[in-house]
Amino acid sequence: MKSITKLMVVAMLLAAALVVTPVAARTTAITTNGTTVYVGEEDLNFSVTGVFAGATEFVHYTGEAGTSAIDERLSVDVEGNITEIRKGIPTGDYYARGPGQDGKTHYIIVKEPKLELDVVLNTSKKDSVASKSVTRDTLLDFKLTDNVIGLTDTIDIKVTTPGGGTTTEFGGQTLSGKAPSGATRYYGAVDLTGAEAGTYTVQAKWPSSSDFYGKGFDSNTVTFEVSTKKLAITSDKDSVVRGKSFAVTITGESRQDYILFVQNVGTLIHDEDYPLIAPGQDGVANVTKIADWDAGDFIPPNVPLEVSRDINAPGLNYTQAWVKTTAGGTRTVQFNTTSSTDDRQFTIRVQDVTNPATYDEIKVKVEKGAVTITAAGTGTYYIGEEITLEGTCTESDDVYLFITGPNLPSDGASMINPRNAVIPTTTGWNSIRVPVEADDTWSEKWNTGTITGTLDAGGYTIYAVSAPADKSGLSDAEYDTISIQLRSGFISAVTSGAVVAKGDDLKLTGVAQGDPDDVHVWIFGKNYYGTMGGLEVRSENVEDDGTFEFELDGSDTEHLSAGQYFVVIQHPMANGYGVDVIPGTGMIWSIDKPLGVPITNLQAAAAANALIKELDSPSIDDTYVKLTFVVEEPRILIDPIGDVPAGSTFTISGTTNLAVGDTLNVEVTSAAFTPSGKGEESGFASVARTTEVKAGDGANVWSVEIDGSSFKPDQYIVTVECIETDTTATTNFNVVEAVPSTPTVTPTGTVTTTTPPVETTVTPTGTETPGFGALLALAGLGAVAYLVLRRD
Length: 792
Known about the structure:
Strand order of the largest sheet: 19-27-26-21-24-23
CATH superfamily of the largest domain: Macroglobulin (MG2) domain
Number of domains: 6
Largest sheet: 6 strands, mixed
CATH architecture of the largest domain: Sandwich
Distance between the termini: 167 Å
Shape: elongated
Helix content: under 10%
Structural class: mainly beta
Low-confidence stretches: 1-22, 289-316, 749-792
Strand content: 35-45%
């Protein structure tokens, strides 16, 4: 009895164990070579008598089996079991090693279990509704893909409802206990009738009875929305400026055809008056005209009957279309407007073809746009200058510019050729057309110097219009105006000095208004026509602000003969240079005399007059300015210095015809040379200073302050030398003993008179001979006397 009782207890314990122990992924030993096992599997058994007999481990090689390095090992216990294949190990082939196993013949394949989930249309399984919206009339399928084969594990598809609950019973389908198959299968049709509106989340999971439970091998999550409204339309804009686009979004059944159209407005005659559906959009097919519809087709009300575009003509816009929704039950359609679209409110309707009572509408208002124009600067410009015109336009894709002004065509002139009236048509437009950028801005640079036919100085009005129109047609377009003043260009200039020393630089600076690229500089002098031995005109660039600077450097002026020179600086105005040099001929040409005028045969003054005569011709719009300068031999003059007390500070100054800014070296040295004894201070003194030439009244001036604290009585030499022109001047001056001043004492109290002491004479006891120091002192006094006598 005891034995029977014990057996019953064991049986009961075994039964209880079967109840609480999870079902294993495999129930039999693995005996086939090349069997696939999965990361996360537990309690794998390899028969001790089968193909893997004797295996103590399975190893993964980095390369060729049996020869390359091992990067992972799976240990097999004495009963042939592997407790678990850990997550994170390399996948691939693992070879058996141990007694009777060579580590390169028998193997298993380790894979990672994968689950993939999608929610698709039951009627079109290639169309996913993930992250999309569907209605309750839509049938769905849950699409499940896995790579697990040969296991007893199952998979649950869990649906989380908008309220937060989770279920495996949804849409009339049982979604739990789905066996893996290593392939793709569909579970449906999932019926959404009565489903709660809102967002649903779906995920395929390994249940707790699986070896893969909780190890991160569940599928991706998919969301979709169930919408209660069967048909709806929304717009991304409540109002739109004509010339711009807007988009409507239709929400309805999945993969359903609907009719979309702009309701007819009886006062509008042409289809161009309506917002038009942009061509070439996915899921949109043109409904061209009522006659093209089959007799049995539903004809929606209020469709513009005058529409007659050909369905076979690509690239055209239209006011109605067949629209097929996506798998998510939506479709977005773009409408375009133009400057021809009527500025009013339009109603856009989407309608169920089979049930006219099912429809929705949206209202969009089309508004007129606006045009603005401004001009950079003050509004006053010189003829030949470039004017930047800019502004905004919300009415059209292009802005059309024309001009009005004195003696121009009354309804507007072309800004390319102001002598011609503007042509107010797209194909005939003969003025400036400027494209509008995506941000509604536009910009144009109008060069008044390159237009055909010169504009006179005066006031003008520039029109910016949203359509090709002249002044008489502005009621059909949006526009703005700006007034400008044009002035004739001019030139002014000055020289850096009326006199230039040979070897010095001479600068001609000025302003040339009218935006020329450069000016021409003509120079005439005795037997000189711009260059040594020939005729030459020199060009000088004009900066953006109209200024220019021409320089004759020292290498030019040092070769010029002394005398007066004439300068003519020529401005080309709007039509380019009307007078120029014929290279290598000694002649100039002009518009009046293109064959040339010889001027090197004339004396310099006559040559200059001949040039000016040509520039003054009525046929030539060039303007000019005349200047003169004098070339002199360079000189430096030193003002008289006079006697300077020893130890004082004094100034040496003078005048010069050297250029302002030239550098002068001023050196003061002692004229005497006196030998000194060992340990005695030298009697030789010298000071050097530098200074710059500055502008003076009539003549340029210079000065330098000299510190004479080390100067002893003597004659001194001043040498002044110019660095730029190598010009030198010298002079002498004397340093004399300083006269001590006697201070005056003012008594502040009682004066006491004393008797002076009696002077006592002491007779020397021996005879002394004057020393070398006394002789030097006497010699010095003699020298001073000599200088005084010579000065007198």
